Amino acid sequence: MKKFLGLILCCAAFASASMIGIDALGEEQIAGGSAAAAGRGFAGGAKTGEAEGLSVINPARMAFDTKVVFNLNFLMDMYAIELHSDSYFTSNISMPSFNLSFPMGDFGAFGVSLWQHYASSIRESVVDTLSHADARIEYKGSVYEIIPTYAVRLPYLRNISLGASVHIVMGSMVRSLTLGPNKDGVADEDMWATNNAELSDYVEGSWEIDHHPAYYSGSVQYRGRQSSFYFSYTTGYTLLNKLEYNLRFSELDTLVPSCIERKVKIPALFATGVNYRLAKRHNVMMDLQWRKWDEDVENIGHSYDMRSKTETQDDFVASIGYQRDGSSLYYDPFLDRVTYRAGAWFKNWYVADVYEVGGSVGAGFPLGRKGISLDLALQGGKRFSESEGNWEEVFFGIRLGLMGIGSWGQSRR
């Protein structure tokens, strides 16, 4: 168990992230970013089944599960980033989510999730051939959440369920900007007197919720014979980032550190979605998430004359998807038991004038007779901006998910 938890925290530390908003909160993972959800364009929050599992945006869905669901997801991201004539390429690997849920019959269902909400990660060196100066930049940050969830179906209206979840926030942030020596203008005969001293602006800190242990989500789900839909509300909260700033000289000497607390007010989130089932195994789905930002985000940069704030806008995600469920009969042909998915989405970032379009395809491959499946999703798209100061990014990602389904605690027939 200790090794398993260590793997989870290690993957959370090596988080993939975009260059956009890196001084603010970084890249926000779309809620419900499992491999299965990614394969259908991050739609399907209203889809129910015996093993759909926990949803961080719609906790009520879990009440309709009939089996224990274990879900572990990995993401490998690749970015091609451009700004004017400059270009940059990076790739990262992370674990965006881990879910475990237990049905308890008439007593509802309980689950827990580890979700990486925001992430910023970059490490790069830059050399200026004109001034003979060099610089190194490194960001390592992640805001992740542990989310206990409970859901239950109503006693006399069994096609309606209620769900609630508690989001316990934690995380860390490290930023380092190092300026190398500039020997431009020093005569060759005096070069012996120079040294390789470097000046580093080093910042580290932690994430938590200001004056509160957590924030909360609640939702209601309706499941009909052909159509299902949900409504979800997530409370607003204020993120507190306690930072310590240090100026280091060649890593040998450090000035007196200064401590700063930056606060980021995250607004409430509204979400809804619908799933329509055709011919038993074909599903068409659509989801919408919306959040209204009223305040800009204070940046982590407080030195080198960097921008102090990142302007915000109302952010939302509109997604549409399709899924053909695989056959549950083990003796059916393998291709008939495979689940096929496709989808697309449009996203308004919380960063002003930044937009994202993407598409995906995916499949779920059954492994053995016990309901275990391997989910694979290929996703790609572009992030673009109307502002001169933001990067444009083309991204491609591969998501792998391992879903285990069992009947733990239930008697054999």
Please tell me the total number of domains.
1
Q: What's the helical proportion of residues? A: under 10%
Q: How many helical elements?
A: 3
Per the CATH scheme, the topology name is Porin
End-to-end span in angstroms?
A: 31 Å
Structural class: mainly beta
Tell me about the largest β-sheet.
14 strands, antiparallel, barrel
Describe the strand arrangement of the main beta sheet, using strand numbers.
2-3-4-5-6-8-9-13-14-17-18-19-20-21
CATH level-two architecture: Beta Barrel
Low-confidence stretches are: 1-16
Integer average pLDDT? 82
| CATH homologous superfamily assignment | Outer membrane protein transport protein (OMPP1/FadL/TodX)
Shape: globular
Strand segment count: 21
**Share of β-strand residues:** over 45%
Tell me the series of helices and strands, N- to C-terminal: HEHEEEEEEEEEEEEEEEEHEEEE
Alpha carbon gyration radius: 24 Å
CATH class: Mainly Beta
Describe this structure in words.
- This protein is mainly β and 413 residues long.
- It has one domain (2-406): Outer membrane protein transport protein (OMPP1/FadL/TodX) (Porin), CATH 2.40.160.
- Helices cover 5% and strands 57% of the residues.
- The chain has three helices and 21 strands.
- It has helices at 2-13, 35-39, 334-337, and strands at 27-28, 68-83, 86-103, 109-128, 133-153, 160-179, 199-209, 215-223, 227-234, 237-249, 253-254, 258-266, 269-278, 282-291, 297-298, 309-310, 315-324, 339-348, 354-367, 372-385, 392-406.
- A 14-stranded antiparallel β-barrel has the order 2-3-4-5-6-8-9-13-14-17-18-19-20-21. Strands 15-16 form a two-stranded antiparallel sheet.
- Strand 3 and strand 4 form a beta hairpin.
